[in-house]
Specification:
Length: 479
């Protein structure tokens, strides 16, 4: 009994159509043999009967081996089954269902190339043999040979327009290819034939989202939300899509609805809080996150975000408590370690800063942001400049287009007394970000230290233009 790859148990039990056709052919041949009288001396008729008899014998022999193969398959003796199917083909090389049975066992035994060859032979005998087409298409799909798989599923769909699985596979392939117009057409056709399906809607939307086709995914998600307004995951996803296209009010409504539906899910709270942080409404974000940690007190990510918001709001003591709580819940949370280091840096608690950055760098696999921040902390104070330079070099190598990282390297070189190199790094930083007030200010500082007061004032004025509120620059200009 043949069982097909990529099918359910019920499908595995079905007898191939070719098997039944062979039995019908055998019965017909035997009937002809019995009913046909062979007159003595009629040599032509005798040769015909002799040929028919030989063919019947071969077919019977092939069928015997085939059945033995089926029995071997039933007890998972696949090597024995392969032998029997090969013997069957020796006697009957023209029955495609034997090739399919043998190909199936080759797939089980991880002999994919041999399986493909057998299926090609089966289709040479009968290009419309559905079991061979199904197995071949599924095998191509699993081995990422998508163009050929698409061609075969299109052929199967033409042979049987009522088979839903063919349409679904075509839909998936069109989506994977990015042929969204044909995917939309196929989806509408499936809906017209089989009605609307939430599962299908979700699958289509998921594939589109994974392919970054958010605009096309939105109508599918909106329809899902109409069919089930209590699906918080769909509502939340719609919120993220609204946020991406700049529709902040709609995004906020969706996030709030998701939180209301399932307040025990941390990411729904985080989506709402991050939206509020993007709007620079840290007070609202703090209120949201305070409710969140009351609801889910063991969610380290929520505590980390709360500590960040509190720090932005200037609530240093509360921020330290929240960030320490984060680290208590998750000792690997390097984001919290980094934010806490920034707070201690403002308090000039350098030993604590060094400890926290060392841990954050180790846990984050030397993330550039921690390397840079740690290096700048040391450079600002003229501490351990060689170590600071090593870290800055790593940060710049990881992100060579980050003007802040280039500025850090320049400041280290300045502190080491290498003013020409510092100027070169600062000018590189300004090419990337010509509106950076700190970089212009540092360039002014380098020239001021080198005795070029006129150049220094020129660059201080550029810094002030970039940041008119900078008290340090105004002081340097004597304003």
């Amino acid at each position: 009994m043949i069982f097909y790859a990529f099918s359910d148990d019920k499908q595995r039990q079905r007898m191939p159509a070719g098997y039944c056709r062979v039995f019908r052919g055998l019965f017909l041949a035997v009937a002809i043999l019995l009913l046909t009288a062979v007159a003595p001396g009629d040599t032509a008729r005798a040769r015909e009967v002799e040929l028919t008899s030989k063919q019947i014998a071969n077919n019977m022999k092939a069928m015997d081996h085939f059945i033995r193969g089926v029995i071997a398959d039933k007890v998972d003796d696949y090597y024995r089954a392969v032998f029997e199917y090969q013997e069957a083909l020796e006697s009957d090389p023209d029955s495609p269902f034997i090739y399919v049975a043998l190909a199936q066992d080759y797939i089980i035994l991880s002999k994919v190339s041999q399986a493909l060859e057998l299926l090609e032979k089966a289709l040479e005998i009968n290009p419309d043999y559905v079991p061979a087409l199904e197995l071949y298409a599924g095998l191509l799909l699993n081995t990422e040979q998508l163009p050929k798989a698409l061609e075969l599923f299109e052929h199967l769909a033409r042979l049987d327009t009522s088979e839903v699985d063919y349409s679904f596979q075509l839909l998936r392939l069109y989506l994977r290819k990015g042929d969204f117009d044909r995917a939309d057409t196929m989806y509408q056709r499936m809906v017209a034939v089989n009605g609307e399906s939430q599962e299908l809607l979700l699958q289509v939307a998921t594939v589109l989202l994974m392919g970054d086709s958010t605009q096309r995914a939105t109508p599918y998600l909106e329809r899902l939300a109409e069919l089930d307004s209590t699906d918080a995951a769909v509502v939340y996803t719609l919120g993220t899509l609204c946020l991406q296209r700049g529709d902040t009010p709609s995004a906020e409504n969706h996030f709030q609805k998701a939180v209301g539906l399932h307040p025990e899910v941390a990411r729904y709270w985080m989506g709402l809080a991050i939206l509020q942080m993007d709007l620079d409404d840290y007070a609202a974000a703090c209120r949201t996150l305070e409710q969140a940690v009351d609801t889910i007190p063991d969610a380290a990510g929520l505590w980390s975000l709360l500590g960040t918001c509190q720090s932005q709001e200037g609530d240093t003591a509360e921020a330290i408590v929240s960030l320490k709580k984060t680290i208590e819940l998750d000792t690997t949370n390097f984001t919290a370690l980094g934010v806490l280091a920034l707070i201690y840096e403002r308090q000039d608690n350098i030993p604590k800063v060094c400890e926290l950055y060392e841990r954050a760098i180790q846990l984050s696999d030397s993330a550039a942001v921690f390397l840079n921040n740690y290096a700048y902390t040391l450079a600002e104070r003229g501490l351990d400049l060689e170590h600071a330079k090593e870290m800055s070099e790593k940060a710049c190598a990881a992100d060579p287009e980050n003007s802040a990282y280039l500025d850090t390297m320049a400041w280290i070189l300045f502190q080491q007394g290498d003013h020409p190199s510092a100027v070169r790094w600062l000018r590189k930083a300004l090419k990337i970000d010509p509106h950076s007030a700190p970089v212009w200010e540092h360039l002014g500082d380098v020239y001021q230290s080198s005795g070029s007061s006129s150049k220094a004032r020129k660059y201080y004025r550029k810094a002030l233009k970039a940041d008119p509120e900078s008290e340090t620059v105004r002081s340097k200009l004597g304003l």
